[in-house]
Specification:
mainly alpha, 342 residues, 1% strand, 14 helices, Na+/H+ antiporter like fold
Length: 342
């Protein structure tokens, strides 16, 4: 029997890095006191400039890996892509909103106040409306999925996100009575999806033309990876510097947030998994199709939560808890996939 693949490097210890960032961020927030508030005020058109720079540094290395010319092979993978689109955009955002509403409005009644519950619900909705992009390459690789199909589904998902993210978020936040200005949502989507996606596409085409695919994969992307890692950790430290007081006063909040997010992740995975089996997809297509919806594009969710509700908001905290639980849950889903391989 062939040896199973293992997650490598930084991603393997992401949860521990996030916990370290929590500790560092809380410490910095304590030391800096009110002086840190100056960072929250550095905004242009509701986009926080320090956070924007860090998010771009995180997202661009992901976007530059995506070759949109792969979409020409869409027809040969139509059933798998159809399942991905159905789960990601017609089930996942709405199931997340329903689960968040049940937990934060009813199950946790008396444990959290109404204003905090609304912010938590908003953060969960932002995660639910942002299915995974580049990290699904990692999960697909570990589960021995089809890399060509994974590339196509990520490309299609990113293009849909440009047009679907804003109206879905606006609708779901609207029915939960959370006010969300159109201009803030549109500005955030342009800043954190359209601009890095366009820059990544142009860079990908230029590098493939001038240097070739091997140079892109073996030289350029590995050099960008440390930039992405540093940007992610810096963003988390900054967020927890603002959230520190709230966490120290209510450490139970992280657990309360993690439970509905974990339930949603497993629910969406099994919806994709059994949907793929019903459609008689081969395992190598079914596994990544189930994983892309289960995982989240947390960089986008974090950025939009900050733009809409601020660095100190419960919404921003929920999106960061999404980062915290991402790796252990997704690794468990990889194991489930391999154990149920057919």
């Amino acid at each position: 029997m062939a040896e199973r693949r293992a997650i490598q490097g930084f991603e393997k210890h992401l949860t521990w890095w996030v916990l370290l960032c929590i500790a560092l961020g809380i410490g910095i927030g304590k030391l800096a006191g009110d002086q840190i508030q100056g960072i929250a005020e550095l905004e242009v058109y509701h986009v926080n400039i320090p956070i924007a720079v860090l998010i771009w540094a995180m997202i661009f290395p992901m976007m530059v890996q995506i070759d949109f010319s792969s979409i020409k092979n869409l027809k040969s993978n139509s059933k798998g892509i159809g399942l991905t689109v159905f789960i990601n955009w017609l089930i996942k955002p709405f199931s997340m909103a329903l689960i968040a509403w049940l937990f934060f409005d009813f199950i946790y009644e008396g444990l959290i106040d109404d204003a905090t519950a609304n912010e938590y619900m908003a953060g969960a909705i932002l995660l639910g409306a942002a299915p995974c992009t580049a990290m699904v390459f990692v999960w697909s690789y570990l589960a021995e999925g089809n890399p060509n199909y994974t590339l196509i589904q990520v490309s299609v998902n990113d293009l849909i996100m440009v047009f679907a993210f804003v109206p879905i978020v606006r609708f779901l936040l609207g029915i939960t009575s959370i006010e969300t200005p159109w201009n803030v949502l549109i500005t955030s989507t342009i800043a954190f999806v359209v601009i890095p996606l366009t820059a990544g596409y142009l860079a990908n085409k230029y590098i493939l033309k001038t240097k070739g695919a091997q140079w892109l994969k073996e030289r350029f992307i590995p050099k960008l990876k440390p930039v992405s890692i540093i940007a992610l950790l810096s963003t988390l430290i900054l967020l927890f510097a603002f959230q520190g007081e709230k966490i120290l006063n209510d450490p139970l909040a992280i657990l309360l947030i993690a439970i509905p997010l974990a339930i949603q992740t497993y629910l969406i995975f099994f919806a994709g998994w059994f949907g793929g089996k019903f459609l008689k997809l081969p395992y190598q297509t079914c596994a990544p199709a189930a994983m892309i919806g289960a995982s989240n594009f947390f960089e986008l969710a974090v950025a939009v939560a900050i733009a809409l509700f601020g660095l100190e908001s419960g919404a921003a905290l929920v999106t960061v808890v999404g980062v915290l639980i991402e790796v252990p849950i997704m690794l468990s889903l990889v194991r489930i996939s391999m154990n149920r391989r057919y």
